[in-house]
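Practice problem: predict the structure.
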Amino acid sequence: MESMYSEAIDYHIYAVLLLVLTITLFYIYTQFQQDFGRYKKSIRIWMPIYGFALASTFFTGVVMMAAKHLEFTLANNLMIAETFLLLYLEIRRHKMMKVSPQSDEAYYIAYAKRIYAIELLTVFVVVYIAKSAAMV
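Answer:
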């Protein structure tokens, strides 16, 4: 049981790093991309990697909670809430991208920047809270 927990921690850390990397790349890409059609195409190519990172993070978190007999601490509850928040924000951003006409390109880019900034901020805040809760 302990080996499963330690492996889940390792995979969880890598999944969170991949998640932060993809969100950061998306945010940087919204900063420097001028062609909206090319932006949409490249984001759609990278979305499976983001989805995989989010799902891997959630799955390894569930495995770790199961190994520790489902202890619902503040840090665990925040991580679960953050997963659902990230999923909700990505669904909203993706729906906006699908229905946004070519005339609303600037509005969509500003909207995507806000969503990615919120996602990055929540990831860093929850990781900080989880690390400080683990230290206690």
